Amino acid sequence: MSSSTPSSTKMCQLVADKHVRYILMAEKKKESFESVVMDHLRMNGAYWGLTALDLLEKLGSVSEDEVVSWLMTCQHESGGFAGNTGHDPHILYTLSAVQILALFDKLDILDVEKVSSYVAGLQNEDGSFSGDMWGEIDTRFSYIAICCLSILKCLDKINVEKAVDYIVSCKNLDGGFGCTPGAESHAGQIFCCVGALAITGSLHHVDKDLLGWWLCERQVKNGGLNGRPEKLADVCYSWWVLSSLIMIDRVHWIDKAKLVKFILDCQDLENGGISDRPDDAVDIFHTYFGVAGLSLLEYPGVKAIDPAYALPVDVINRIMFTK
């Protein structure tokens, strides 16, 4: 796994080619235990893997046609997408499907009216969003709806003002945000709330110094970031915390070099892939968030990622600046 050389020696490099091979192999191992357990999440896994490949400039190594035709088998008559063929639709997978099509510049194959109506139909009277027909409410779903509709240029289909008011009602005294009003601040939810506010031009609702302080306090001794006080560092927070700090313009408050080292120490240098922390087993989720974190840290050889949309900057520019 990670090299056990003392930290004073030269930092290990990003083994990008091995990560590319790991991602491509992970997609082929359909029979493995991990694959069976993750079967219902396949759409998210595809988004993580494909976005990581694009950030490493290797999206061309997968068959676009194969991915897109599988993806379209996951769409329901409701307009929403499921995590895999034959599963129920959910807002989570709908955003991943839209993001994957955006990566391939294939949004034009969507019935945008149908997809956007599915997402807009999940908004509740108080401005919050449910994840699916079963009605669970979470600020994650607010972000997902806003991000998805923004990519499809259909934000006018929802009550944006109410959506923003609901997110603001989830703000806590520490400057952070929870999943519902009164729920504790958590870095993942903070990303969702800050991202949604950034996309809707509503960042004035955030106390940037207070939240920035809470977020930079997430950096622990080994350079990694945690999601809440007293928790272990985890590579995925290199995305949730860092992107939030960038959106509120407080990223200079953390030690970037130490964070780069932490992410690189979580690589499997032999077989590729990135784990949650050094010497743990790698997975596609942490591989994506590790690469995305390095992108935010402007690591050489990794394309720039948009902190609000979680897609490469060139993809977002292509969407936003075309008619």
TrEMBL record:
<feature type="domain" description="Prenyltransferase alpha-alpha toroid">
    <location>
        <begin position="15"/>
        <end position="310"/>
    </location>
</feature>
<comment type="similarity">
    <text>Belongs to the protein prenyltransferase subunit beta family.</text>
</comment>
<dbReference type="Pfam" id="PF00432">
    <property type="entry name" value="Prenyltrans"/>
</dbReference>
<keyword id="KW-0808">Transferase</keyword>
<keyword id="KW-0677">Repeat</keyword>
<comment type="function">
    <text>Catalyzes the transfer of a geranylgeranyl moiety from geranylgeranyl diphosphate to both cysteines of proteins with the C-terminal sequence -XXCC, -XCXC and -CCXX.</text>
</comment>
<dbReference type="InterPro" id="IPR008930">
    <property type="entry name" value="Terpenoid_cyclase/PrenylTrfase"/>
</dbReference>
<dbReference type="GO" id="GO:0004663">
    <property type="term" value="F:Rab geranylgeranyltransferase activity"/>
</dbReference>
<keyword id="KW-0637">Prenyltransferase</keyword>
<dbReference type="GO" id="GO:0048364">
    <property type="term" value="P:root development"/>
</dbReference>
<keyword id="KW-0862">Zinc</keyword>
<dbReference type="InterPro" id="IPR026873">
    <property type="entry name" value="Ptb1"/>
</dbReference>
<protein>
    <recommendedName>
        <fullName>Geranylgeranyl transferase type-2 subunit beta</fullName>
        <ecNumber>2.5.1.60</ecNumber>
    </recommendedName>
</protein>
<comment type="subunit">
    <text>Heterotrimer composed of the alpha subunit RGTA, the beta subunit RGTB and REP; within this trimer, RGTA and RGTB form the catalytic component, while REP mediates peptide substrate binding.</text>
</comment>
<dbReference type="GO" id="GO:0046872">
    <property type="term" value="F:metal ion binding"/>
</dbReference>
<comment type="function">
    <text>Required for male fertility and root tip growth.</text>
</comment>
<dbReference type="GO" id="GO:0048229">
    <property type="term" value="P:gametophyte development"/>
</dbReference>
<dbReference type="InterPro" id="IPR001330">
    <property type="entry name" value="Prenyltrans"/>
</dbReference>
<dbReference type="InterPro" id="IPR045089">
    <property type="entry name" value="PGGT1B-like"/>
</dbReference>
<dbReference type="GO" id="GO:0005968">
    <property type="term" value="C:Rab-protein geranylgeranyltransferase complex"/>
</dbReference>
<keyword id="KW-0479">Metal-binding</keyword>
